[in-house]
Amino acid sequence: MSANSTAGTPAAGVSISLAELRENQPRFQGFVGGHRACVGCGQALAARLVTEAAGPDVAVANATGCLEVFSTAWPDSAWRVPWLHSLFENAGAIASGMEAAFKARGQSTKVLAFAGDGGTFDIGFQSLSGMIERNHNVLYVCYDNEAYMNTGVQRSSSTPHAAATTTSPAGRDRLGKRHMKKDILQIVAAHHMPYAATASVAYPSDLRKKVRRAMEIEGSTFLLVHSPCPLGWRHDGAKSIEVARLAVTTGLVPIIELERGALTGSMPIREQRPVIEYLRAQGRFQHLFADTAEAREELEHIQALADYNIERYGLRGSGNDARDTEGADTVRRGGVRWA
Ligand SMILES: Cc1ncc(C[n+]2csc(CCOP(=O)(O)OP(=O)(O)O)c2C)c(N)n1
Ligand code: SF4
After folding, report:
1. Which of 69, 89, 126, 151 to mutate to test the pocket of ligand 1 (most atoms within 8 A of CB)?
2. Would the pTM of this model clear 0.70, i.e. be above it?
3. Whose CA is nearest to atom 8 of ligand 2?
């Protein structure tokens, strides 16, 4: 800090460098290091980004799963905000109760619920649905790593078609999971909820903006964060962001916003990447590169799914779209770019 400043605040008219500013104005950290996540774990990053954007006046209900396990090994905790462990199946109900209690006490503390895809798409779905239907003032964040990772990579209803897991193995009889990934965003949006959006840890500024937007809304909001799992997806932990970005730029993971069910925001893709780039980067899809007619057909099918998303949500970018993170980190809202 320059000599002309006191107590960390620069005197009027004194310029300070960006590095100094960062050092002296640290962001709020609700989730800190020292936890036991695998290297490159997307949900550790998701928890850090969400709590950073949400700020200190929050309380968290966290369903059983990797995040809960790796962040709270007794006697340590990576959380710097009030945190409560719900069961696997009831994060929505616990968050509803917390919100009602804060309201009764006249407190404005916002409740965040965190759960994995197993705890959201499958086992906790009934309590999530009830929470949204009653419109509790809760931001529910599902970190979507597309399988039950904490118990050894079992398939969930979020696992993408053709991915291999321990319960949807690839072999002679079938090429990984036979069923399609459940479209949870459209399902929660069908509850007429005020705000439901997707995000990816590969696009942190977009993710933070969506958290801030959800925090402003009085009522239930839902954020589905695509979060790579190097262990279950079988890629190098150093490649997590690269892999997560390919999920978006291929069109397989559309980044969109729905308000009361209507599409109000989308992340444009200026240069669509072929799905094989995303699939080849992960062990869970390696069986699709066998030299067989079935494997080739699956690859075509997955490419068609990505192309369908792009058409359905109008994701094709134009030359005027900003290009700060390989062309996709700016969201269009109602035809206007959301800065
Ligand atoms: C009712 C119930 N069923 C099963 C379990 C065992 N279990 C604990 S964590 C977990 C997997 C969690 O998967 P997900 O929600 O996708 O989170 P992830 O571990 O992938 O982050 C399972 C099956 C449990 N704790 N409670
Ligand atoms: S298994 Fe996957 S989700 Fe769990 S801590 Fe490791 S990388 Fe993260």
Report:
1. 151
2. yes
3. 41
